[in-house]
Design goal:
By secondary structure, this protein is of the alpha+beta class. The chain has helices at about 10-20, 50-60, 95-115, 150-165, 165-170, 225-235, 240-255, 270-275, 300-310, 385-395, 405-420; strands spanning about 25-30, 45, 70, 80-85, 125-130, 135-140, 145-150, 170-175, 180, 190-195, 210, 265, 315-325, 330-335, 340, 345, 350-355, 360-365, 380. It has eleven helices and 19 strands. The chain has a five-stranded antiparallel beta sheet with strand order 13-14-17-18-19, covered by helices on one side. The protein has a four-stranded antiparallel beta sheet with strand order 2-1-3-10. The protein has a four-stranded antiparallel beta sheet with strand order 4-6-5-11, covered by helices on one side. A hairpin with a 5-residue loop joins strand 5 (about 125-130) and strand 6 (about 135-140). The radius of gyration is 24 Å and the shape is globular. The protein binds zinc ion. The site of zinc ion (ZN) has 8 residues, from loops.
């Protein structure tokens, strides 16, 4: 029998098989029979959605155990998603459906205030695998024409949402004797595995299925009907309608199912600064590693910052550039390299940024971390003379350098870091 796909033992090998083909996606699977009962036991598949669905729905028909996950790849566009859970026993007073309705409402309000995007519960797919002990849902926002640049930006969006006091007040649950948000903020990390519709966790029985409270409107999305599906009509006859319905849910549930022909990625940083720019004019034609959304055009400084973040083992790149003309500073948000000069190693989840103070001719590294590195400023890195000359030629700096000021800043920062 022909193998439906190659099974890789390493995720990187599946990435290699996918190459640059935007139609090939990565899935992870926990083998039904495996000696290891941990994540390292997962295997990886690279294939198109269509091919995957074709094999997957056969497993569904035959009631085979399914432990499949979508791999939300680093630096790839994706949709807004949430992972929600709590133990029912310690939250008997919580109205789960009300709390999810509130979450959707807060999210829609924020999408409208930040980006001018109007959406509602009709755009939200609710999948549920709750049991008598535990409430567990996935929410996937499918707004036609809209996606986030990557799941890091989704994480930023969710982080900001969770800072809203009213949100915190309404979406808190109890967990292990503590108050905690219903939102799991740990699901926005690099190459995250997110369980698929119609799969269950290994050793468990609760499938992830469409929630009875889901009001998602499928008409807005296009689901391809392939020859294979047309053929399955003959094979499976009247059951197709149910199967076709499942196919619509499956396609809508894929976090990375971003259509490059009509999706406008949200350039997150610049949208925040210029909220009146209509979405359609902010179109990013294709995703590139160096995504510049800035009118700052001193390429020499950009290259110098790149040289700071490109080390052999972790080749970072610049995610966005924000020029603040009033302060005369340039903020470089870094992706792919989270090396922090405060802790002397890579951060696990938060990104870092470099702030260039043009008048002072220095660059300082800071962190997006809200805890340990909140007040950290790295020692200033002096911008090389040839780059300073380019900044002067570009009229970004006009006054003479002040060596005393430089020394002063260095001392201030040393003092500050010693104190904290
Ligand atoms: Zn840090």
């Amino acid at each position: 029998m022909e193998k439906p796909w190659n099974i890789h033992h390493k995720q990187d090998d599946a990435f290699t098989e996918a190459g640059d083909d935007p139609n090939i996606h990565i899935f992870a699977v926990e083998p039904v029979i495996s000696l290891q009962n941990n994540r390292s036991g997962r295997k990886f598949i690279a294939c198109t959605y269509e091919k995957f669905w074709w094999e997957y729905q056969k497993m569904m028909k035959n009631n085979w155990p399914r432990h499949f996950y979508e791999v939300i790849r680093e630096n790839k566009p994706c949709h807004l998603y949430f992972d929600l859970e709590f133990l029912k026993e310690s939250n008997t007073e919580v109205d789960a459906n009300k709390i999810v309705d509130d979450l959707i409402c807060f999210s829609c309000n924020k999408l409208e205030s930040d980006f001018g995007i109007v959406c509602s519960e009709w755009n939200v797919l609710r999948l549920d695998s709750s049991t008598s002990e535990k409430f567990s849902q996935h929410l996937i926002f499918r707004i036609p024409g809209i996606a986030f640049r990557s799941n890091f930006e989704v994480g930023d969006f969710v982080e900001e949402l969770c800072e809203n006091p009213e949100f915190r007040h309404r979406l808190t649950i109890h967990s292990g004797g503590q108050d905690k948000l219903i939102v799991d903020k740990a699901v926005y990390t690099k190459n995250r595995h997110f369980r698929l519709f119609q799969s269950c966790k290994k050793g468990k029985e609760a499938l992830l299925l469409r929630s009875d409270h889901c009001k998602f409107e499928f008409d807005t999305l296009h689901v391809p009907l392939s020859q294979e599906m047309a053929q399955s009509n003959k094979i499976f006859g009247p059951e197709l309608s149910q199967c076709g319905n499942n196919k619509s849910i499956f396609y809508a549930s894929l976090i990375c199912n971003v259509d490059d022909t009509d999706i406008y990625l949200i350039p997150f940083e610049i949208k925040k600064r210029t909220p009146n720019v209509p979405i359609s004019s902010g179109r990013v034609p294709s995703f590139t590693h160096d995504s510049f959304y800035s009118d700052f055009d001193c390429l020499e400084l950009n290259d110098y910052v790149k040289s700071l973040i490109q080390t052999n083992d972790t080749p970072g790149h610049i995610g966005s550039i924000e020029y603040d003309a009033e302060e005369n500073t340039v903020k470089y948000s870094i992706r792919g390299n989270r090396y922090c000069r405060n802790i002397g190693r890579q951060h696990k989840s938060n990104n870092v940024y470099y702030l260039a103070y043009l008048d002072q001719r220095v660059i300082i590294q800071r962190c997006y971390d809200r805890q340990s590195c909140r007040d950290f400023f790295s020692l200033p890195i002096r911008i090389p003379k040839n780059v300073v000359r380019c900044l002067e030629e570009g009229m970004y700096i006009t006054d003479v350098p002040n060596e005393d000021l430089l020394d002063h800043i260095e001392n201030e920062i040393k003092q500050e870091n010693n104190d904290s």
